[in-house]
Amino acid sequence: MYLFVSITGSTVSFVLRSYSFMASSSSSSCRQPEYQVFLSFRGEETRLNFTSHLLKALKDRGIYVFYDEETLKMGEELSPALLKAIAESQIAIIILSEGYASSSWCLRELSEIMELYTKELLIVVPIFFHINPSDVRSLSGKFKKYFDEHQRKKPARDVKQWKDAFAKVADVKGCHIVENSHRSESEHIEEIVKGVWNKLKSKSPSGHNQNLVGIDDQKAKIISWVRMDQIRTIGICGMGGIGKTTLAEAVYDEVSSDFHYHYFLYNVRENFEKKGRQSLRNEFLSSLLKQDASSLSNLVLRVKRVFVVLDDVDEPNQLEDLCVEHFGRGSKIILTSRDQQVLRNGDGKIYEVTKLSEDDSLKLFSKYAFKQDNPIADFRDLSIRFANYAQGLPLALKVLGSALLSKHKEDWVSEMDKLKKYPEKKVFDTLKISFDGLDELERDIFLDVAFFFKGRIREDVTKILYSSYKCNVRSAITKLEDKCLLDISTPDNILWMHDLLEDMCWNIVRQESDDPRKRSRLRGPVDVPLVLKDNKVTDSVKGISFELRKTLKICDAAFEKMTNLRYIKLYCPDLVGHSVLFKKWVLFHDLKYLSDELCYLHWEYYPFKALGSNFSPKNLVELRLPYGEKIELLWSGDQDLQNLRVLDLNRCSKLREIPNLSTAINLEELICNGCRCLVELPSMKHLTSLKRLGLSCCENIKKVPNFPEKIEEIYMANTSIEDVPSSSISRIKSLQKLVVTRCQRLKSLLGLPPYLEKIEADGCSSLQTVSFTDQYPNIFPEHDLIVVDSPFQLKRLDSIVFENCIKLNRDAINNIVANTLLKIECITKQLVERSTVESAKGLVEKVDSNWMDYKTLMCSSGGSVGYPEGKVYETSYYKVKLVCVLPGCQMLEQFERWSRYSSIAVELDPDKCSSGLVGFALCIVLNRYGPGVHFRFKSQLRTTSGDCHTFIHSCSPINGDGYEGSDHARFIVFDHNMLHEAMPYVGASFKFQSYFTHLDCVGVHVFYIDAAIIRRKVQLSDDVESSEIFLTEEDIGQTKSSGSEEDQRNFSPDNGHEPEPNKIKTIFSLLIEGLQKMLQKVFFPCKGKVEHA
């Protein structure tokens, strides 16, 4: 889902051309809405309060919203982009506030909206915000004054249209929000969003995707099974391309919101082959449950009610590997597979996807060929013939329709005639129509992706292909996506294509020649071994891809004639169990030659000592040689490495040195984990693009290099380093992760950047000294600690782990704790920045049946949990969590209130809670613990009126397995539910419950923050106009402005206006003063003695 803010010129021209084509070929009744809701409002009055809350609620429900940030309002006429947005919306929400009629822009929007409403092309939902609908109808009160002003300044014809539209909207049924009403704005917004959602569902019964055809009945059937308590597992089967995944996605979109834990795991079969059983299981469980999979036991899984879809399962044991049988009561699992036998192993229902009917086939084809539901009259007969040719297979219909989009009739006839010459009814023959419409570069890229890069991130593939073709390939990839040949809509911008399209590519290459040696690309267990066993290949070969499932005979001159070779991909689908594979290579001599054209070299268990005496890596973008246990040296001498982005030498145990990398200015990843013979690294002075460095298990690495300034992740676990000096790391502002786990000789970590997302130093038994730079800076960090997306998912998980660092001195402990509290402060500040007082004040009732199931389970086993019977709430901030683990058995001195029992209570200042923000950080001291340890706790806050708000928190050690002989550990815990704003709380209590361990004592640290100062700083930095709203005379003094009101209102860095220097100086002075006051108040100490609750 996305929020539309503005439209670039190129985008507008493209959309308008498409719209023009539709207008010429269809009636207005076939209008295809691009947006679901258009918001019309008076920005100065409601943008920062009611409108922003309504917008967030609409987005959270998954509704596409057009929301203009004033970027399209210029001149006297509505821009084409704005007109188009209104015309292509399904519903217009008009927020009629007191000053709405004062804006000629708002009235122009209203006139256009009501014209479409009159023609029954648009649904209108008016919101009478703190105004009387009768005043709107009669144009009385302030509305009369505004229209009188328009009458004097604007054309009479325009004003008449505005009056008619204004009066007409008063007769439309809407929502009346009255000041000081017994109903809150949040209740009104909930009702509005629900009504809009119901209207959209009634207008679009097939769901949010307007291109879904013929699946409503099938979807309804599966959803009815999901609703049945006795059915747990549902299988969806059918041939490739029949629409199994599409159907599963439609069901998931409608049902997933009913479950707290839900996840759609795509391409199970392929992910098992690429990632292996253990890795995929951990990734799946972590993504589903939003916590470290290593800490999850079967007992924990059994209390989780989940909804998961496992796409493309091909073996029964994959379900066991993913632990789906352990999920709790009420869980639902949907499986898609081509193999019915896989699905019959369960005891659930099986649904076989049927092909589309003739009518639905024609409709789906028309949506892609004409961008409407029915074919143009002149093309109807041809459309029926093409639809019949596809025989109801959705993928074929989509690709055929896309290939014929905007083509002349003669082209259609030619394509149909072409099909007659190739009567094969296999799907890949049909798909080749789209392939034939590509130019030479697009064809090559499509084949390259199919053979070598399916499943890779688009940006990474683009860099490799750029080096290969020496031109910008981004537009070509976009065109392949537009033609439905590539799918880049999956998370993380991954390049995907359907299996049938992949098969089609293999068939195309096979048709190049009967002799594999003369083909452009080689793949498979027959062709690759044949080519590599001798040197009879030709220079036509551009790439080789092979799964190392068996040994290969490789001639030393096998690559000698492959002068155009650009890609080598020799990989094991599962590295586990292949540790001795390299010993089985049948080699004649060391490798003599590799092509200088190589852009991508991925060769696992590389069996030679070097890459060839004359090899030049000038075109290499990625060099991956993991598990190359024979390689000792990559190449000799200095080389041109400007194109190199990734150098992966993971577990090349005999590698003695890494060559000079001074020319590798674009290198982003350097992975040398497990290079045991590696003693030192080359200079990193010129590696200005390096983001990730892996040196873990390089046992002979003793000296820390000078890290590049842009590095983000450093992994040095199990090395012999003795210290990390401040000079090598303190200047790195972009560093996010530092891992030095089990570095037994490490004695000091000095000058650490204070905002690291992850610090893992557990098991560093000699570590004594730890320090951070700028423990208490005057300003907050420039980079965001929180990645803003959806507020319903965990946005940040910080871990600071010094577990079993038994020699840490007192100063080190205090430095770590101080840095942890500083991070909590910074995260709090950014959470406040992203919220308003009203949204932060609002609590969301949390219905968590898993929690109640867990309670029941523990009580039945004799545990006394004492968890709430009533409502459980959650704050409206973005979801974050921070965990710090330290050695020791005593309560940290920064936590003033503590108890040796499992509960504690503190008193709060209701005045500070009401006017600002109160926050908590918790410290829990655990006795000896092992695998599976975790703890949960509830917090309850009392208001002055006696109301009680309950929140649930949970935490697990970062390393779920614990350490042999681990004694005590102290956990500092913080999450978004420990922040509360503008609520008159007088007291807070916390009750803890730990499992598989003993809880020694608990402590709480209370702090107060003036959130208004933070929000004022954000408003001032974003928009000078907001200073007129938030700055008072007391704040600013008696500052006067010589600029006009319009100059002040229109100020922005892009329009050429400049604010008055005195005012800017005053603003920044106020900002600095406010931040200083806030830092003085933050972490306000609560004085008191030990309290037993």
UniProtKB/TrEMBL annotation:
EC top class named in words: hydrolase
Signal sequence coordinates: none
GO function terms (MF aspect): ADP binding; NAD+ nucleosidase activity, cyclic ADP-ribose generating
Keyword line: Hydrolase, Leucine-rich repeat, NAD, Plant defense, Repeat
GO biological-process terms attached to the record: defense response; signal transduction
Top-level taxon of the source organism: Eukaryota
Catalytic activity: NAD(+) + H2O = ADP-D-ribose + nicotinamide + H(+)
Chain intervals for the UniProt region annotation (Disordered): 1035-1061
This enzyme's EC code(s): 3.2.2.6
Domain (TIR): residue spans on this chain: 33-200
Xref: PANTHER family: DISEASE RESISTANCE PROTEIN (TIR-NBS-LRR CLASS) FAMILY (PTHR11017:SF479), LEUCINE-RICH REPEAT-CONTAINING PROTEIN (PTHR11017)
Protein name: ADP-ribosyl cyclase/cyclic ADP-ribose hydrolase
Organism name: Durio zibethinus (Durian)
Gene that this polypeptide is encoded by: LOC111283928
